[in-house]
Amino acid sequence: MADTAAVVFDFDRTLIDGDSDNWVVTEMGLTQLFRELYSTMPWTSLMNRMMVELHTQGKAAEDIEECLKRMPLHPRVIESIRAAHRNGCDLRIISDANRFFIETILKHHGLLDCFTEIVTNPAFVDAEGRLNIVPFHDSADSPHGCSLCPPNMCKGLVLKRIQAADSEIRNRRYIYLGDGKGDYCPCLKLGTRDFVVPRKSFPLWKLIFNDQTLIKAVIHEWSDGEELAAILLDIIDRILMDENTRTGLTASPDDGCKTTPVSNP
Ligand SMILES: [Mg+2]
Ligand SMILES: [Zn+2]
After folding, report:
1. What's the CA angle centered on 63, arms 58 and 69, to 5 degrees?
2. Catalytic pick from 3, 12, 96, 254?
3. How much is the pTM?
4. pLDDT < 70 positions in the chain
5. Is the dihedral of CA 178, 84, 24, 144 positive or negative?
6. What's the CATH architecture for 5-17+74-120+138-247?
7. Would residue 141 show up in a list of annotated catalytic residues for this protein?
8. Helix pair angle (20-27, 99-108), 10° resolution
9. From the CA of 15, how far away is ligand 1's center (Å)?
10. In the record, which residues are listed under signal peptide (predicted)?
11. Nearest bound ligand to CA 177?
12. Cα of 128 to ligand 1 centre, how many Å?
C-alpha cells in the first residue's frame, strides 16, 4: 500500500467544516472592519490587515491560537486522516488559508505529523509579536499565469509540481478533496485512475457538473464530515484492492483502511 495513494486536501470547508479566516474574523470581533475593507484589497492582504488590527488592540498570537483551537473538526475526519496515514498514504494540504492557522488547528488535534506537506500562504510572528500573513505567489513579481485561479495561488500548478516529483513512484493515484472555485484547476490535472471528491452544492461541485466531460478522474460527492471520511476510506480500500489484484496479492486484514475503527486518543 505504501506509496500508492496520495491524498490532497483543501483545508477550509473541506478538512475543517468551516472557514478558518471567517472564524477568526467573527470570533475576534472584526466583522465590521472586515466588511468595510472587503472590496478594497485582495483576500490575503485583507487577512493580514485583520492581524494588524488585532495587534493594535493588544491581542497576541497566543490569543489567535486559542481562538483557532475552538474551531470544530469532525471526529470522523480526524479518524480517517489517522487511518489513511497509518496505511501509508501520502497526505498533503493545498490551501489558500495560511500556515499559522492550519498548523495551529492540526497540532491541536494531533494531526500535524500525518501530513507530508502543507502548501499555503506563509505566516510568521514578527519581533513585535504580530502575526504577518503574506501571499504564496507574489502576483506582482511573478504572476502564475493561470486564469482560473486567484492571483496569490494556483493550486493546479502546485499539484502539477507534486505529480512531477512523484513521477518515480509507480502507479501513484491521487485523491483530491475540496469545495471551492480554487480547487477546480487542480481537478483538471487528475487522470482517469485518480479521484476527485467535491463537496455537494459548493462551487467546485457546480463547476465540475457544469461540464463533467472535462474531468477525467472518478467523482465522489460528499456533504458532511461523516460522509467525507467514509468516502475517503472507501477509495483507499479500493486502491488497495486494485493494487493487490495488480501485484497478485490477496488483501489481508492488516493492510486495509477498513480494518478497524480508529481508537487513537
Ligand atoms: Mg475550501
Ligand atoms: Zn490554476
Report:
1. 165
2. 12
3. 0.91
4. 1-3, 138-142, 249-265
5. negative
6. 3-Layer(aba) Sandwich (3.40)
7. no
8. 90
9. 8
10. none
11. 1
12. 31
Closest ligand (CA of 154): 2
End-to-end CA distance of the chain: 24
CA of 155 to the centre of ligand 2 (A): 6
CA of 47 to the centre of ligand 1 (A): 16
Every domain of the chain and the residues it spans: 5-17+74-120+138-247
Task: Report which of 107, 43, 36, 99 is spatially closest to residue 78, judged by C-alpha positions.
Answer: 107
Query: Radius of gyration over alpha carbons of the chain, in Å?
Result: 19
Which single residue is written with the C-alpha cell 460522509? Answer: 227
Q: What is the DSSP letter of 112?
A: G
In the residue annotation, 254 being an active-site residue is answered as no
What is the predicted pLDDT for the residue at 141? Answer: 61
Q: Residue 142: what pLDDT?
A: 63
Exactly one of 10, 90, 96, 183 is catalytic; which is it? 10
Give the pLDDT confidence score for residue 200 in this predicted structure. Answer: 98
